[in-house]
Design a protein that fits this description.
87 residues; mainly beta; four-stranded antiparallel beta sheet
Length: 87
């Protein structure tokens, strides 16, 4: 996001990417607090000896951990269609 605004008063966004975490052969999952508004404080990805762990750190809504044997990260340039930032 830049400090520029468009004609509607929205901030102008540049260099956006949609990040998708694809987990296969899930070993464990513990998700809590899913709601209509889910705001994350952070995402932590780590690797154990034979699995991957994805931790969702919440501000509001969903939080939890997922463990899987295989994890892939996909990056697609653009802004999600539902985004308030230029979508």
């Amino acid at each position: 996001m830049t400090n520029e605004t468009d004609e509607k008063g929205h901030y102008v966004c540049r260099k956006h990417v949609v990040v998708t975490f694809v987990l296969e052969r899930i070993r464990g999952m513990n998700l809590e607090g899913f709601s209509s508004q889910n705001v994350l404080n952070g995402i932590t990805l780590s690797r154990g000896s034979d699995y991957y762990e994805l931790v969702l750190e919440e501000v509001c809504g969903v939080a939890g951990k997922l463990q899987a044997d295989v994890m892939r990260i996909e990056l697609n340039p653009g802004i999600p269609s539902q985004s308030i930032c230029g979508g």
